[in-house]
Design goal:
heterotrimer, A mainly alpha (571), B alpha/beta (348), C alpha+beta (353), A: MetI-like fold, 2 domains, 71% helix, globular, B: 348 residues, alpha/beta, D-Maltodextrin-Binding Protein, domain 2, 7-stranded mixed beta sheet, 14 helices, signal (chain B), SBP (chain B), periplasm (chain B)
């Protein structure tokens, strides 16, 4: 190469500094602005608008707030414990025994992540409402009991815990099953050689090794249920009690008490931060790195005669968490009312006709939902990709702060963010309220941590020398990112995209405070329809939502540019 | 239906400073050929409404047939959504709506105070409407009404077992059998809670709260819970939903207690900055015409203040029902107090 | 003026300075080895040359033009260099052919030209039959050759190698050393090669640059470095050696701590302070009785190992030092017996540092 060409190339501008600044600004606005307004409003009087500490005083003195917090915390811990108790044996059976069909079971539980929790709660209304619930109706007619007999009642605290646990246990399950996959069999062999029986080995070696995963998963379940809005709104309100999320939501009813809502959101924020720190501490301690080592395939235990008991256990759990709710949704979508027996006479398409052709909100909501889902997934993945690149490659001083900012929203519960965004963007300066933009901002903020986490761990898997090789061969930073890094991250990028997409379309906590008639989403119309009692239409919408999500995820993995064969990624 | 009212801080602040219009009601107007001409020149009218979408669309159809050449754009949402939307639009300087209608009487006191409405009295209203069902200053009038009713499933409760009065509901035999909507969510139920608390006192609700009542949100929901068979008895809920379920053949009967039944009035008015002022006046007048009111009654199950409307035979006529009227002016400052009491007794 | 020049090059990360003023000139076509223990700054120096890290001070010039200084850095893609990485850094999503062709594509060559050039280099590196494979389907040695081919095909002005052989097993490593040298002799690229393995450096380099603690200890031909070390560090690092120290008597004479005099045939002693002398293991003569007048001392055999071609002795001498010496197999001294050691003056190298 001649010197002039070398000269020419020298002119190429390094874009990393401006990109860094733009990203830093964007992330700061996304994260700091809503938090700022929450804090500001929490010190503002709802009456006159002046400075006050009354909102915080109400946190301690207002019995309805204290009660809502107490119930929410009790519920969250009950959900955590229940999830862990169910998920751990499931994970062990599926990961470490010769249980028939274990791969299928595992796939099924993983796929059940896609189910929005509020849809599950509605399915349980259909199944276990005390009078009209399918289970109760069937039970009564089976034993010829009168109408006052109630076998199960979902509109209770226990019912709420159960309904939420059904949709949080996959978190614990996935973490524990993955941890069990990685417990090196030689550690277990060592115990066996030293004379430990199968149970002793399980108890003394395997169990302590996956304990951190169990605790971490349990904390996620606790966090999820503590900040969840949909399921409590559907189950707790008819039962006559508030959890903190529904209480905050009720403060937005006319006349809105924004200051109190902001103050009520702050302890939730603090608890979330504490739980996340606890989780980090647990995962960071105790030679957890052992789980990273790969020495030998995991040992598979033979169940023998226990096989049937184990099978019964797994099928029971799956029935409760997957088969029954989905069955109820399908049945309700195709019969007149949920309680009807399934016969040729009761089968009907009227809910489908109503949702698809008569209900004016359907099209708009579906369009909004998928537009927002796709936009959010794309933008978040892009931001996460660039942020993770800057952070993991440390190409700029201070890049680490970007990582902190991108992870920070994980500590902001959806409902709190909803409050913050409403306060930030529903004032005359930013007329974003009532537009899709405010929802886009909300979803971006909510999903950013997950996207960033995925991208940064996959960046860690791409050796920096692969990029350096591209640079020294003559490719610019961006070109390298495009030619080398992006194709190598393709699978992770698609996975992150799908993850964000699914997370967006099932979001309700922040959405419920930010949506208006023109910016309806499927999740919100499902919630609204539940308020007006149209279960058939809800189930049809739920099925549409699930089918469409699976379709989008499927397509995302098949599109030639994104998916297709890795071998053909570069032609 | 009270929920999701996100009035911005500016809006809330505005309440305090708004000028209160106090003027004589203008002279009633008739539909003249000139008005019709001018309305046709505008070509359309935008109607923000909380009436059930099917009913509203039918009404629009009738108007378009009566006055060809003027399109009606129906923007339907729940009362509180309509309220929130108009608030936002006006505070952002957007004037989109010509005629507005919600089922929440408090809204119109607020609109009037804000100066968002223009005074206009159709001849029909001036001639035939009861004086307390229209604004003395002529800014709005009761376009429709519905009752919040006590009702039960006849197949699950015998007539003998069914309650006859509000206080009957405190009988232990109804424990765990009732469903009711929420005053924080529903304007209809807020009105009902207000008038019943005035009538029976809060200790009535305190006792009712111990009856293990299933709590739902919207006033359309209790009738649907009855239809589902989830509860045999509703404490409150829209009368027109019950009418429709009865017509579908669901075995439900309404009880009109001797103490009275709460009435929720849905007002309509013309926006002061209506983009199609003549079409707005024409449409507004049409809303109160016998044809339109009869259609509301037949198709929507709504109650009308037009004395010539003939109700379906199976419905108890309003004249035979003791109505509990509410005064929105008195109700408005009590909303927070009612919500606090309610949460104390019912948990949410 | 040399082709590649490093002048007073400094690199600091915060308070830590890892490269502390390196001056080096590399002639066009030379193969220079940066040799040193881990943490000596050699890899950072290489990455400075490549442009992956920005210099904190000093300059790097290529063909007289400054490419790195505290004021600015030409990005790696603007340097027309290529590099072979420790991990090979073959792009797993590209075939052997695509990996090698990538650099040419960036140079906007026609596909015929690319085909021709890639086929040429694949022939030279004996990879032609493997061109359609993915890196994951190749052995370590084959991957190494792809990495070489990819670096060479663009005809870089400077070729950089970062511990290229450290991931290979011993046999393959030896083979690849000669391969690299052969390819260098064939293409004569100006090459900078980083390694911590002295025999790798000896086999391949025209010039060896020994680095320690961010500085150059000594630069010279392999023979210079081995036979004429200038510091204790270099003497110890390159080949085994004994270091004897004592008081300086004259420019080439030392009174050692064991109370004997050493005359040095080469090198210079430090003008003041302790005097140090290096004597290679295999240059020491050993005998059961005194056979030499000067440069000799007696000690006691601490260990003796028979190694087939020679014996490996460890002898402790007065002053507390232990000397390692290799002797012909027929010199047989049992452990514990007295042994006389002779340090031939020509093999005693006086060290300044």
């Amino acid at each position: 190469m001649s010197a002039t060409v070398v000269e020419g190339r020298r002119a190429s501008v390094d874009l990393s500094v401006p990109i860094f600044l733009i990203l830093g600004l964007l992330l700061s606005v996304l994260v700091i602005l809503p938090l700022f307004w929450i804090i500001w409003y929490s010190f503002t009087s709802d009456g006159g608008g002046g400075f006050t500490l009354a909102n915080f005083a109400a946190l301690v003195t207002d019995p309805t707030l204290v009660r809502a917090y107490a119930i929410a915390i009790g519920m969250a811990f009950a959900v955590g414990v229940l999830s862990c108790l169910v998920a751990t044996p499931m994970a062990w059976l599926v990961a470490r025994t010769d249980l028939p069909g274990r791969r299928f079971f595992r796939m099924l539980i993983t796929a059940s992540f896609v189910t929005p929790p509020f849809l599950g709660a509605i399915a349980y209304e259909i199944l276990a409402a005390p009078n009209s619930g399918i289970v109760n109706v069937a039970f009564r007619s089976l034993f010829g009991l009168d109408s006052s007999t109630v076998l199960v009642n979902i509109y209770t605290f226990t019912g709420l815990v159960f309904a939420i646990a059904c949709f949080t246990f996959p978190y614990v399950f996935t973490l524990v099953a993955n941890a069990l996959d990685k417990v090196p069999s030689d550690l277990e062999d060592a115990s066996a050689i030293l004379g430990g029986g199968a149970m002793t080995t399980l108890r003394k070696v395997t169990f302590p090794l996956v304990l951190p995963a169990m605790l971490a998963g349990t904390l996620i379940a606790i966090l999820q249920s503590l900040t969840m809005f949909g399921s409590p709104a559907i189950i707790a309100l008819p039962a006559g009690f508030h959890v903190i999320t529904t209480k905050i939501w009720s403060l937005f009813q006319f006349p809105p008490r924004l200051g109190l809502a902001a103050a009520a959101a702050i302890p939730l924020l603090v608890i979330t931060v504490m739980l996340l720190r606890a989780q980090k501490a647990i995962l960071g301690r105790k030679g957890y790195t052992v789980l990273g080592g790969k020495s030998g395939t995991p040992r598979i235990n033979t169940l023998g005669n226990w096989k049937w008991a184990a099978m019964a256990f797994v099928l029971t759990v799956l029935s409760l968490t997957i088969f029954l709710p989905y069955g109820a949704i399908l049945k309700t979508a195709f019969t007149n009312t949920a309680g009807d027996p399934i016969t040729w006479e009761t089968l009907t398409l009227r809910h489908w006709r109503f949702v698809l052709f008569e209900f004016s909100a359907t099209q708009l909501a579906l369009r909004n939902t998928f537009l927002l889902g796709i936009l959010t997934a794309t933008i978040v993945t892009a931001i996460a990709l660039v942020t993770a690149y800057l952070v993991t490659r440390r190409s700029i001083a201070g890049a680490g702060y970007l990582g902190v900012l991108a992870t920070a929203p994980v500590a902001i519960p959806g409902i709190v963010l909803g409050v913050g965004l409403f306060l930030s963007y529903a004032n005359p300066t930013f007329q974003l309220y009532g537009t899709l933009w405010i929802l886009l901002i909300a979803f971006m903020t909510i999903e950013l941590p997950a996207g960033y986490q995925q991208m940064s761990s996959s960046f860690a898997g791409v050796h920096p020398e692969l990029e350096e090789a591209g640079r020294i061969m003559g490719a610019s930073r961006l070109r390298t990112l495009w030619d080398i890094t992006a194709p190598l991250l393709r699978t992770s990028v698609v996975a992150a995209w799908c993850f964000v997409f699914v997370g967006t379309i099932r979001e309700l906590s922040a959405t419920i405070l930010l949506t208006t008639a023109n910016t309806k989403l499927v999740s919100v119309i499902i919630y609204d329809l539940n308020e007006s009692g149209d279960l058939g239409a809800i189930c049809v919408l739920g099925i549409l939502l699930l089918v469409a999500s699976f379709a989008v995820v499927y397509i995302a993995n098949r599109v030639p540019v994104l998916g297709g064969s890795q071998m053909n990624a570069r032609g | 239906m009270w929920n999701k009212v996100f009035v911005t801080a500016a809006l809330v602040a505005g309440m305090a400073t708004a000028t209160i219009a106090r003027a004589e009601a203008p002279a009633p107007y008739n539909v003249t050929p000139e008005l019709e001409e001018a309305a046709k020149a505008e070509g359309k009218v935008v109607f923000y409404t909380a009436t059930d979408v099917a009913v509203a669309e039918k009404l629009a159809e009738l108007f378009e047939k009566t006055y060809p050449g003027i399109d009606v754009q129906v923007e339907r949402a729940g009362s509180e959504r309509v309220f929130q939307r108009i608030g936002q639009e006006i505070s952002s300087g957007i004037n989109n709506a010509d005629v507005i209608e919600t089922s929440d009487a408090v809204h119109f006191e607020y609109f009037k105070r804000q100066g968002w409405l223009q005074a206009a009295v159709p001849q029909e209203v001036a001639d035939k409407w009861p004086a307390d069902e229209r604004d003395p200053d002529g800014y709005f009038a009761a376009y429709r009404a519905h009752l919040s009713v006590l009702a039960y499933r006849t197949d699950l409760l015998s007539e003998a077992d069914a309650p006859k009065t509000w206080t009957d509901l405190l009988d232990p035999k109804y424990k765990g059998k009732m469903v009711k909507a929420h005053p924080g969510y529903s304007g209809t139920v807020m009105t009902a809670t207000y008038v019943l608390s005035e009538l029976l006192g809060w200790d009535y609700f305190e006792k009712l709260g111990q009856q293990d009542v299933m709590q739902v949100q919207s006033s359309t929901e209790p009738p649907k819970k009855l239809a589902q068979g989830e509860r045999p008895l509703e404490v409150d809920g829209n009368e027109y939903n019950i009418f429709r379920l009865q017509e579908e053949g669901v075995p439900i009967r309404i009880v009109y207690p001797e103490e009275g039944t709460p009435l929720a009035v849905g007002n309509a008015g013309i926006l002061s900055k209506a983009p199609n002022p003549n079409a707005a006046k024409l449409f507004y007048s049409f809303l109160f015409s016998l044809d339109a009111q009869q259609l509301n009654s037949d198709f929507g199950g709504l109650r009308s203040f037009h004395p010539e409307v003939v109700e379906k035979a199976e419905r108890t006529p309003m004249s035979k029902i003791k109505l509990l009227h509410s005064d929105p002016v008195k109700l408005e400052p009590l909303i927070q107090e009612i919500k606090t009491h309610y949460e104390q007794y019912f948990g949410t | 003026m040399s082709f590649l020049e490093l002048a007073g090059l400094v690199k600091s990360y915060g308070a830590v300075t890892v490269v502390k003023g390196v001056d080096l000139s590399v002639e066009k076509g030379q193969l220079v080895c940066l040799l040193g223990p881990s943490g000596c700054g050699k890899t950072t120096t290489l990455r400075l040359i490549a442009g992956f890290v920005a210099a904190s001070g000093g300059e790097i010039r290529v063909g007289g033009q400054v490419v790195s200084s505290a004021a600015g850095t030409v990005p790696p893609e603007g340097r027309n260099m290529s590099m072979i990485f420790q991990s090979y850094a073959l792009w797993p999503h590209m075939t052997v052919f695509q990996n090698v062709a990538y650099g040419l594509k960036l140079r906007k060559m026609s596909s015929e030209q690319i085909n021709k050039r890639v086929r040429e280099i694949l022939t030279v590196t004996q990879l032609l039959p493997l061109e359609g494979r993915y890196p994951g389907e190749l052995s370590g040695g084959q991957q190494q050759r792809v990495s070489l081919a990819r670096a060479l095909v663009v005809k870089p002005e400077i070729l950089l190698l970062d511990e290229p052989l450290s991931n290979l097993d011993a046999n393959l490593r030896e083979e690849m050393r000669f391969e690299i040298r052969r390819l260098h002799d064939e293409f004569r690229y100006t090459t900078v090669y980083v390694t911590h393995d002295q025999s790798e450096a000896m086999t391949t380099a025209d010039v060896i640059v020994v680095m320690n603690d961010g500085r150059i200890e000594q630069a010279g031909s392999p023979e210079d470095i081995y036979a004429r070390p200038e510091s204790e560090f270099v003497a110890r690092f390159i080949g085994g050696t004994n270091i004897l120290s004592g008081k300086r008597i004259s420019d080439d004479t030392v009174h050692c701590d064991g109370d004997f005099i050493l005359n040095c045939g080469s090198g210079t002693l430090a003008p003041s302070g302790r005097a140090i002398v290096s004597v290679r293991h295999h240059d020491i003569e050993i005998s059961e009785n005194r056979r030499w007048e000067t440069n000799t001392v007696s000690g006691r055999v601490v260990r003796q190992i028979y190694l087939g071609s020679h014996r490996d002795y460890l002898v402790s001498i007065p002053g507390g030092e232990t000397v390692r010496a290799l002797s012909p197999v027929d010199v047989r001294l049992p452990v514990g017996s007295e042994a006389w050691l002779h340090f031939p003056p020509n093999d005693c190298r006086a060290l300044a540092r």
